[in-house]
Amino acid sequence: MAQVPTEQMAQVVEAVGGPLVYKKIPVAKPGPDEVLVHIKYSGVCHTDLHAMMGDWPIAPKMPLVGGHEGAGVVVARGALVTDADVRLGDHVGVKWLNGSCLACAYCQAADEPLCGAAALSGYTVDGSFQQYCVAKAAHVARIPRECSLEEVAPILCAGITVYKGLKESGAKPGQSVVVAGAGGGLGSLACQYARAMGLRVVGVDTGPEKRALVEGYGCDFVDFAASEDLVADVRARTPGGLGAHAALLVAVQEKPFQQATQYVRSRGVVVCIGLPADAHFKAPVFDTVLRMIQVRGSYVGNRLDSAEAIEFYRQGLIKVPFKTVGLSELPAVYDLMKAGKITGRYVLDTSR
């Protein structure tokens, strides 16, 4: 293995609201149950922008190195980590869930994302917008050697999250699902996972670029900006016009969360995944009760969900729409994100 340096380049948020500072910081040493990962590539998630801006009720650590879609190579291990856990040189992913206690009722029930002691990459602990990142050995995702670290990086959050949401929806092969925010980083992967799982998909987003992307996956598309009656247009694209069996809400605005119960069919399931700042979910009680609509929140997946989501990618069933730029260019990516001008996912090359 190459010698681990003492310093590295990183994008650091020094105070809530930013700005980002691209600078040298020390390389951390792994604790007894941790590994040090040489991050080669990191996807950029809208959560990273929320963390910098302090948009959510849970305060992020400051100063903060964001990022939670880091793909790289294990270069050092803590004293308690053995070859049975992770080997030096293994390709691994640093996910949103950086670590958990592994002992509480939630961890024992394979709901480790709900652990009260969970450490969150790029939020409560430093994440993958740096060249070397520490994570718990038990929680890094195992990445098969044949997988491109550059392309697989967005699977580590966006892919796992939407795959988990589809599982939570209970939708079965042949049934229909709406993906609200279908042209973005999560949505573009949600469309593909849903198709790979045998589902019919109606993507909701706006613009010709996103239409082309979503329709290229074999999905129907409704442009919310051009639609005069979104609910009717979505229903018209479902079997018998009855509405979708499920809806995945990965949008970053509040309005799609207010529309979803109206375009799912009776007994439909609405799965909330996106986290718009200061947003509320609202639905008519009478209609929700009489049509037996279910509303669920879906957080990131557990370790098994992660392995399954990566396996879909390894088998060639998922193609990540991404553009790679240097780690130094992260502020420009955030500007595009704020303007809603990102189709697919941006990936950062930490070497530049």
From TrEMBL:
PROSITE patterns: ADH_ZINC. InterPro entries: ADH-like_C (IPR013149), ADH-like_N (IPR013154), ADH_Zn_CS (IPR002328), ER (IPR020843), GroES-like_sf (IPR011032), NAD(P)-bd_dom_sf (IPR036291). SMART domains: PKS_ER (SM00829). Residues 17-348 form the Enoyl reductase (ER) domain. SUPFAM superfamilies: GroES-like, NAD(P)-binding Rossmann-fold domains. Pathway: Secondary metabolite biosynthesis. Its cofactor is Zn(2+). GO terms for molecular function: alcohol dehydrogenase (NAD+) activity; zinc ion binding. One of its GO terms (cellular component) is cytoplasm. Keywords: Metal-binding, NAD, Oxidoreductase, Zinc. Its EC number is 1.1.1.1. Belongs to the zinc-containing alcohol dehydrogenase family. This is alcohol dehydrogenase. It comes from Cordyceps javanica.
